[in-house]
Design a protein that fits this description.
Elements lengths: L2 H23 L2 E6 L7 H12 L7 E7 L5 H14 L2 E6 L2 E2 L2 H6 L4 E4 L4 E2 L5 E3 L4 E3 H16 L5 H8 L3 H26 L19 H15 L2 H4 L6 E2 H8 L4 E2 L6 H19 L4 E3 L4
Parallel strand pairs: 1-2, 2-3, 3-5, 4-6, 5-10
Antiparallel strand pairs: 1-11, 6-9, 7-8
Amino acid sequence: MAIQELDSYIKKELDDRARKLEEHFEGDVVYYTGTLSELLIEGFREYLEAVKAHNNKHERLVFFLRTDGGSAETVEKLVEIMRFHYQEVFFVVPERAMSAGTIFCMSGDKIYMDYSSSLGPIDPQVFNGTQWVPALGYLDQVERLIQKAADKSLTDAEMLILQNQDLAMLSRYEQAKNLTITLLKQWLVEYKFKDWTTHKTSPEKKGLPVKMEEKQARAEEIANLLSNNKLWHSHGRMISLATIQRVLKLRVEDYSKDAILRPMIRSYNDFFMDYVNKNGFPSYIHCRHA
């Protein structure tokens, strides 16, 4: 089979599998895998504009995401672009959406995962001029050294490390931390909790209307848990659906035992990722309308 014919076959297969999901969800299906960096923004905007230009009447975006993270500032812009074009956004995480990917998912009206899917701690990534580094890890270590200095137990080597810290970079890390928590709290209240009108689980409040301050408090609790390195111990910790439900007590749409949806998601995801991995693409986006 010629290369052009092979690419045509792969595109047709991906389109067919995406179409079945679009019919199920009654929305546009888009899959992105890769880092969430600012280089994505312009192309992402043009891509969604092309999708909507196909005389498309859908007001729901079903966004498949696989990422190890990236920039919270980028995520904020991508959410703005999405919400300009769509009234509803569903996130589907067949494998993992870590760090900034988790923040991204929290902007959705719904999040779909199965028992093997993972989100991650929301430790924002900051580019230090050479590489992306987890901000909270640096802040935690500096806080530890400052506490040791206050306790007069700081070693000479640790004092040297503390003195050599770049205050401007530390400020960026602190700003990144604050931004991630602010965004997560805002989006949970505005989108994820929009239909949370009455209490359903708390015995003493069951049936009572949910107040705005209760939504805000619940969002802050989730944000603080996801940004607590002492709880997760590792930036790369893969937080399972079961842990999200048990620890965060956050509602997630579990398709683990859905005999219709799970095979469709697996079929689309596996074919998509097999194509991406075999070609060595660092990032890739697919939608049958563009």
